[in-house]
Amino acid sequence: MSTIQDVVQRTMYMSIFFILIPLGAYTIHTGMSAMVAGVSYGVLSLFIPIFYLCSSESGFGPKARRIPICVYVLAWALVQGGTFLVFNNLDLSWLWNLSTIGRDVVFAIIMYCQVTLSLVLALAGGKNTEV
Predict the structure, then answer these.
(1) What is the pLDDT of residues 7-35, one digit of tens each?
(2) Which residues 6+ apart lie within 8 Å of 126 measured at CB?
(3) Helix (H/G/I), strand (E/B), else coil: 130
(4) pTM of this prediction?
(5) Separation of first and last alpha carbons in the chain
(6) Long-range contacts from 52-56, C-beta under 8 angstroms, 24+ separation
(7) Among 1, 71, 106, 113, which is most buried by a count of CB atoms within 10 Å?
């Protein structure tokens, strides 16, 4: 399996935690639910991969390339900042015209892509070691 495929697959497993928990918080709570979901996603999308990267078996691809945590944190911050800039500079009225379920699906895809991109950038930009 290629390194990118491995990142995509492992991010899918991690997404159970960093996507479903914020979406659950969003659908269960009222009032500040969007803020609760945003903050919980921010924290979980940073720390779930960090917990995984701390594991001794956290290598990616056939060579089991490891990502230094500080490189992941930097890549995560860059991706979050880039997403913020994109959301602030694009006309997203089409997004808000979707049904609630449609918006949830779009946001879940965006959340998954953010973490996947963060891990891929960290692999590309860091001095990777093998397990």
Answers:
(1) 888 888 888 887 777 776 666 655 566 67
(2) 67, 68, 71, 72
(3) strand
(4) 0.83
(5) 16
(6) 52/10, 52/14, 56/131
(7) 71
